Amino acid sequence: MAPTLRRVVGMAPLRLRVLAGEAALDRPVRWVAVSELADPTPFLEGGELVLTTGMRLGPDDAPAYVASLVARGVTGMGFGVGLGHDEVPPAFLDEAARAGLPLVEVPRQTPFIAIGKAVSELLAAERHEELGDAVAAQGRLTRAALRPGGLGAVVERLAREIHGWAALLDEAGTALHLAGEGAAEGAGLVLPELGRLRAPGPPAGLALSGPHEHVVVQPLADRRRVRGFLAVGSRRPFSPVGNTVVTTAGSLLTLSLEQGADQVAATRRVRAAVLRLLLAGERRAAEETLEAVGGTIPGGPVVVLACEPRDAEELMDTLPGFTAPWESLVIAVVPEDLADQAERAAGAAGRAGVGTPVGLDEVATGFDQARRALASASPVARFAELAGQGLLSLVDPALLAGFATALLAPLREYGSRADLVESLRAYLACNGHWDAAAQRLGVHRHTLRYRMRRVGELLGRDLDDPAARAELWVALSVQSGTGSTSLRTR
Predict the structure, then answer these.
(1) Interatomic CA distance for residues 143 and 345, integer angstroms
(2) How, if at all, do strands 76-80 and 48-52 pair?
(3) Residues in Cβ contact with 102 at an 8 Å cutoff, skipping those fewer than 6 apart
């Protein structure tokens, strides 16, 4: 940050006196330029304090001279007296006042070089301070990366460092961590730009600027592929030091993603395999598999929870008992006496359905109950408190499963875009309210509108039609509870 003109003229040894344009003294002085040319602007960049003795300037030159400086964007004008002019010509004072250009009188005993040296020293001091701030910020980001939940901690710390917002997105553009006011909206706005950053070749970032916000997006890539994106936004333009802080955060996040990706993937696969064994009734095999990697399955009566969290990894680390991923959900098998604690944690982290207490040989039943309860959760629903088992229990499960599979097949077959199914579920659960559904998904409402248009096109149905919505809700409710049924009927 360059020193302001107010700071420069306030330096007593220079003995400068402001004669016009006092309202603009907070402009930054990026350099000092000395010139006796009638028009020095071809040699200026803007932001300078222009010093002259006016040797070649007369009163008639004032309008054109001042206008050219203003058009070039200079910070101010210093007029040296005692050589060409005993005092600043009134014509220059009038023109500077009219244009709002600061005009400073430089006395004969103050060499122009003294002003240049003073500004240079101020710039050097500011630069040193900025570098010190950058080093301190890098240290704080590094310490955040070493804390538990390092990814989220780095994003939170970065948002504070830039006095704005920060968003960590996965390679598909789904928000993993959001911090700072406006982060969800900002993440939604950058989604259409991510395609350009996935292009082959060395990864490159992009910058977007508007009248009220400045956004920087960086791909987080290792030697093999892009693993995610870091998007940040601030009301102020990013300085070189600010960009350095963002780059540091990006490097830390890339390293964490690269180091943790293989380990997390392996752990998730083991846990998912153990859950499948439990659902298939292979209790002993499930216990032996989990023991091999240092885990245990709770004994005695257990309660199964089907959770739809904002952060799956964080919730899996928080819940007691055994947790495992299942499609887009987190399934927890917890001791009965810890069910209330797990329910509170799951509700605070998103939505959850809670089954009734069952034995370890009946986990499939608890799983089925929890998923059925999840369809009605806001944010938590208990299967035991549902009104009976609902209208769906009166219909042949096989017929319902076939209907749901056929109806939703176009969405599940649409590439890898499983987000269409969950987006539809959130949209219907919120009765078509865009803002509420988008907030539940952690996306921008424009993103959700695009997804729902695509859903309507793929299914050939009008989502504004109550009958179509009812059929889709039935299909989604059935699909949310078919996992255990299919395993039991093999």
Answers:
(1) 27
(2) parallel
(3) 5, 18, 20, 21, 22, 24, 25, 27, 75, 76, 77, 96
Which two tokens mark 36? Answer: 């006796």
DSSP 455-471: HHHHHT--TT-HHHHHH
CA distance 250 to 69: 41
Q: pLDDT of 465-484, one tens digit each?
A: 888 888 888 888 776 654 43
Tokens linked to 201: 């070749």
Q: Which helix (H) or strand (E) holds 206?
A: strand 206-209
Amino acid letter for position 40: P
Per-residue pLDDT of 149-187, as tens digits, reads 678 888 888 888 888 898 988 878 888 889 888 888 888
- C-alpha torsion 78→79→82→86, nearest 10: -150
CA angle 116, 119, 121 (to 5 degrees): 105
